[in-house]
Amino acid sequence: MDTILIVDDIPFEIKLLFIFLSHTCFEVLVAHDGIEGIKTAESAQPDLIMLDVIMREMDGFEVCQKIKNNEKTKDIPIIFMTARTELVDKITGFELGAADYITKPFEHEEVLARVNTHLK
C-alpha cells in the first residue's frame, strides 16, 4: 500500500483529502504545517507528498526546497495543491522540484489520476 503525506494548515482541506485518499486504498499521513511536514517526510519516507503552497510560518515553496535539499527525502515526488493560479507560481513550484501542481478547488478524479501517475 502506497503512503501519501498531506501537508496543509487548513483542517477542512486535510479532512477532505484524507477521507478521499484513505478510501482509495492509500495509507495517509497528515502534517499541519511545514515544519511537521519536513519531519514526517524524513521519518516516514512517504511515497508521495501533497503540499499546500499557502501556509503560515513556512510556505510550501520553502518546504519543498528543504525536502528536495535533504538526501533522505529528495526523491519523494511532491504535488503542490493551491488556490494560486498564476503562471509564475506554477513555474516556481516546478523549478523547486515539484512533480505536479494542482489548483484548488480540485476534482477528486483529477487528484487520483495525478497521484497514480506519480506513484508509478
Please describe what this structure looks like.
With about 120 residues, this protein is α/β, with parallel strands linked by helices. It has one domain: Rossmann fold (3-Layer(aba) Sandwich), CATH 3.40.50.2300. The protein is built from five helices and five strands, in the order E-H-E-H-E-H-E-H-E-H. Strands 2-1-3-4-5 form a five-stranded parallel sheet, sandwiched between helices. It is globular and about 30 Å long. The mean pLDDT is about 95.
Write the layout of secondary structure elements.
Layout lengths: L2 E5 L3 H12 L4 E5 L2 H11 L3 E5 L7 H9 L9 E5 L4 H9 L4 E4 L4 H12 L1
Helix pairs in contact: 2-3
Low-confidence parts lasting 5 or more residues at pLDDT below 50?
Answer: none
Look at the structure and give the CATH class: Alpha Beta
- State the CATH topology: Rossmann fold
Provide the domain count: 1
Percent helix range: 40-55%
Shape by Cα distribution: globular
CATH superfamily: Response regulator
| Cα end-to-end separation | 13 Å
Largest sheet report = 5 strands, parallel
Q: H/E element string?
A: EHEHEHEHEH
Using only C-alpha atoms, the radius of gyration works out to 13 Å
How many DSSP H or I helices?
5
Measured by DSSP, the beta-strand proportion falls in: 15-25%
Mean pLDDT across the residues is 94
Structural class of the helix and strand makeup? alpha/beta
Brief write-up:
The chain has helices at 11-22, 34-44, 60-68, 87-95, 108-119; strands at residues 3-7, 27-31, 48-52, 78-82, 100-103. By secondary structure, the chain is α/β, with parallel strands linked by helices.
